[in-house]
């Protein structure tokens, strides 16, 4: 039987429609596959079954960018935004595989354990928000490699050890919040290099020693919190600088006896 030109046209249209339908429904996965794996490890490591919102998580390949709290650009994970979502457990080192990650917001949860040094590999990271958890251990020195970071929040945890001097290399920082931890040692003079800072919060730790005079270089700082540490200065210029910015300047040395004993200064 002969097929007319019209019939041929109809067959071509049906074939094209079928191909288009397959193309629309066949979702492409996030690339590379390691990024999907990292998201799944995050879910499993932080008790994802009991999150407040877990919509979409662990769905089929190709759905990753629709998972609650996940934002993608060009099929790469760009942001993970899961504050106040009842995450508990450890932050997995696999998050360091998210090469294009720009924002990581896991604050106000119940995270425990240490901060993975692998987060220092996230060279595009702009915001690291881990405050209001129960993280322990030290602040990894590797975080001093996050040269694009502008917001760095680790307050209200149980972190110990010294403040890494390498944080002074994060020249784009506008906000550094390390308050309400158990940090010891002196305030690094290198923090005076962070001239874009508008917020510096180091209060309610176990810091001791002399406040570095380099902090007077932080001309953009509008909020500066050093109180409830055992720190001091005789530098008149620095005293004036602190008085203008720290409303609680009078209680910087609260608890000094205990802090100095623990630091071997008495």
Written account of the structure:
This protein has helices at residues 5-25, 33-45, 236-245, 256-262; strands spanning 70-73, 76-81, 88-90, 103-105, 110-113, 127-129, 134-135, 151-153, 160-161, 175-177, 182-185, 199-201, 206-210, 223-225, 230-232. With 266 residues, the chain is an alpha/beta fold. It has one domain: Ribonuclease Inhibitor (Leucine-rich repeat, LRR (right-handed beta-alpha superhelix), Alpha-Beta Horseshoe). It has an eight-stranded mixed sheet with strand order 1-2-4-6-8-10-12-14, with no helix packed on it. A four-stranded parallel sheet has the order 9-11-13-15. Strands 3-5-7 form a three-stranded parallel sheet, with no helix packed on it. A hairpin with a 2-residue loop joins strand 1 and strand 2. The longest helix has 21 residues, at 5-25. It starts with a helix and ends with a helix. Mean pLDDT is 88; it is low at 5-26.
């Amino acid at each position: 039987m002969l097929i007319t030109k019209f019939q041929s046209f109809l067959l071509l249209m049906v074939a094209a429609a079928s191909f288009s339908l397959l193309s629309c429904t066949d979702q492409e996965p996030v690339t590379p596959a390691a990024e999907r794996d990292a998201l799944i490890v995050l879910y499993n490591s932080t008790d994802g079954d009991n999150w407040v919102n877990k919509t979409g998580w662990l769905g089929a390949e190709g759905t990753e960018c629709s998972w609650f709290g996940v934002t993608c650009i060009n099929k790469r994970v760009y942001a993970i935004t899961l504050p106040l979502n009842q995450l508990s457990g450890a932050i997995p080192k696999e998050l360091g595989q998210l090469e294009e990650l720009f924002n990581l917001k896991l604050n106000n949860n119940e995270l425990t354990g240490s901060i993975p040094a692998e987060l220092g590999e996230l060279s595009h990271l702009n915001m690291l928000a881990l405050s209001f958890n129960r993280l322990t251990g030290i602040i990894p020195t590797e975080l001093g490699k996050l040269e694009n970071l502008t917001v760095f929040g680790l307050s209200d945890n149980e972190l110990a050890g010294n403040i890494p001097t390498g944080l002074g290399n994060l020249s784009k920082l506008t906000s550094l919040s390390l308050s309400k931890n158990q940090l010891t040692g002196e305030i690094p003079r290198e923090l005076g290099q962070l001239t874009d800072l508008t917020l510096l919060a180091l209060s309610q730790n176990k810091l001791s020693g002399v406040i570095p005079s380099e902090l007077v270089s932080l001309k953009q700082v509008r909020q500066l919190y050093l109180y409830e540490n055992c720190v001091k200065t005789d530098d008149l210029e620095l005293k004036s600088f602190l008085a203008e910015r720290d409303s609680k300047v009078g209680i910087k040395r609260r608890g000094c006896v205990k802090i100095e004993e623990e630091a071997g200064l008495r």
